Amino acid sequence: MATVNIKGDIIPNDLTWVYKWFGFDHTSPAMVKTVIDEAAEDETIDVIINSGGGYVMAGQEIYTELTKNPNVNIEIQSLAGSAASVIAMAGHSRISPVGMIMIHNVSGRSEGDYHDMQKSAEILKNMNAAMANAYVQKTGMDRAEVLRLMDKETWLTANQCVEMGFCDEIMGEEEEPMLMTASLGLQVTPDMIEKAKAEMAQQDELNQLREITNMLVEIDES
């Protein structure tokens, strides 16, 4: 059995270095693909989700990779929010009784004149429609209803997830039936990326100074 951990921010492959630099939990498409590629042909792949989401396209890429494998089992332990909620639609799923799914509209930054703003708004709407495809395919819900839920940012309890089709079952339900009635902000901001670059450059300079000092000491001793 292979395990894919969807933890922390969902990020593009080229941002992995900065998350490692700060020591933050993260998940990239390359990390997921490595587990899938190394799994045996008929091996079950358990996908454990504890994430508030992240970059849309990275989430879409992970979702697509997982849907190619018929042996994927999804387990939502805490939150599957935003881009992570799309990943949660990639296979048969179980959710903790205290777990939640959050779906909402895609957001982004833009600048320019009103033509640029209108174009950006259209792109965001199309991204919403693309995200909605995963929810519609999983739940069988009407697309307009899914988009309405996204538009108002909807947080779903475990029971609601199962009732609406976003999850297949609640963990532990088979032993003891239960009676029950975000992206969230990314950890690494653009400013932090610049800070990491500056710190790494400073570290490189210190390493170079140490090397020069060591060379001078060796010359002096000789």
Count of DSSP H/I helices: 8
DSSP helix fraction? 40-55%
Radius of gyration: 22 Å
Mean pLDDT: 88
Distance between the termini: 59 Å
Q: Can you write the helix and strand succession as a string?
A: EHEHEHEHEEHHEHEH
Unreliable sequence segments: 175-182
* Category by helix and strand content: alpha/beta
Number of strands: 8
Tell me the overall shape: globular
Textual characterization of the structure:
The protein is 49% helix and 20% strand. It contains eight helices and eight strands, in the order βαβαβαβαββααβαβα. It has helices spanning 16-22, 29-38, 56-67, 83-87, 114-139, 143-151, 158-164, 190-221; strands spanning 2-10, 26-27, 45-54, 72-81, 92-95, 100-103, 154-157, 169-170. The longest helix is centred in the last third of the chain and has 32 residues, at 190-221. 29% of the residues are buried.
List the helices and strands and how they pair.
Elements: E1 2-10, H1 16-22, E2 26-27, H2 29-38, E3 45-54, H3 56-67, E4 72-81, H4 83-87, E5 92-95, E6 100-103, H5 114-139, H6 143-151, E7 154-157, H7 158-164, E8 169-170, H8 190-221
Parallel strand pairs: 1-2, 1-3, 3-4, 4-5, 4-6, 5-8
Antiparallel strand pairs: 6-7
Helix pairs in contact: 2-3, 5-6
